[in-house]
Amino acid sequence: MSAERPKERLILLPTISDSRGILGFAQEGDHVPFAIKRMYYMYSIPTGATRGAHAHRACQRLLIALNGSVKVTIDDGHRRDLIKLTSPSAGLHIPAGLWIDLDDFSEGTILAALASHPYEESDYLRDYEAFLAYANENFQ
Asked: What residue stretches are annotated with the Sugar 3,4-ketoisomerase QdtA cupin domain (predicted)?
């Protein structure tokens, strides 16, 4: 029996503001709905560059635009949603089984990702047709 299709969600992250600036944070269990096993980040992204173009079989991610903005296209095999990340006070939870494309990076964007799994190449679906077959086989 196949599971229900995964759905991304935007998570508002807490901030503390005073005369010294703003402190933002995300805690496993409170704001991040998975155990954090890895953190990575992207920066110095050339104008017009695209990233992503893959899905994961098991790994979940929380994407946070620490600086600048990025357009995230999320594809579940039947429907595409577009979310623009523009603030470090929100994180986009990407469950396993969703294809993402990242583009339209503003100059100076720094995009951080918290991941539920260490890097493992076998977890990636990098071919879109293979992703569609996987999604149709595993999700209703």
From this structure: 9-135
Per-residue confidence (pLDDT) for residue 112, from 0 to 100: 98
Q: Which of 25, 83, 27, 24 is nearest to 52 (CA)?
A: 83
Question: Which candidate in 54, 56, 78, 93 is catalytic?
Answer: 54
**Is the CB of residue 124 less than 8 Å from the CB of residue 99?**
no
Q: Which domains does the chain have, with CATH numbers?
A: 9-138 (2.60.120.10)
| Neighbouring C-beta atoms of residue 128, cutoff 10 Å | 15
pTM attached to this predicted model: 0.94
The mean pLDDT value of the chain amounts to 96
Q: Is residue 54 among the annotated active site residues?
A: yes
